[in-house]
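Example record

One chain of 288 residues, shown exactly as stored in the release files.
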Amino acid sequence: MSSIAVLIHDHPDPQLTADGLVRRLSADFPDSPAPPAATSDPAPGEALILRRDESTVAVLTVPSGLDTDLAEIAARSRLWPADRPVPTGAGGHTIVSATRPGTGDADDSAADEPTAADPTADDRITDVADTAFVSEVSAAAVAALESVRAVYIVDADHLIAPDVFRDLALATLPDPILPAWVAFDVAPRPDGVMTAHTRGMAAFGLMDIEIPASGHDAQQTFERLVSTAVHLLENGPTIADGQPVGDDGVIARHAPSAAVEDKTVLRLDYPGMAAEPDEPRRRWFSRR
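Predicted structure tokens for this chain:
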């Protein structure tokens, strides 16, 4: 898997220096497993490279804007304050990504698609460590670059206010920042039945979770979604197809996603609750 965060700028900023970023990381995260080593300052258009053990993080600043509808993403992002203006991204963006030797390209979707048997415990620990490293570097870069106005998490497809991201990173790391790397969305159908799903579990090598028809209210549905994600993160893909989950009759299924084509998810089926008919693969969710 490859963990990717994108820092959105509202104006061009001086390029990060290797020495400055390493010093910021050491100050922010003194309890990290090992201090990262950085290459020399990159030439314009090249990435700054940091290494820790087997993990490598690349930091690449791109002067052009991001070809993404940030306003639409912010509207459904729980960690974007509703009263904060959404940046245009015209000042460029900085890509922070983790890779490991032999893992393949980040855009190799066939290699990155989690399955019921993936990942192994070692793989999952690796994914968590890489995500933590990207989070540390992103939080340090937010402090070092005055121009950062948003943090976009690619796998979760959501936007986070930079101060919120940095506060979460400082308070949570080295434990996984689950609310940052995974979007938890809950919303009612037209008939009032609650639906829910995650986006971003692939960052940890796990299937996303979908609840097409909940037998609970919004808060209880949200709690079920989060608790299932935490269980998967802590224990791996241990929920089998057809396995009961909890004591309320919910059955887990490894099933095609109702929202994303060619994607397998962990679907939670509530007893007596039918999926909404004749509306396949639509965008169910907005911020609630």
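Notes: The mean pLDDT is 86.
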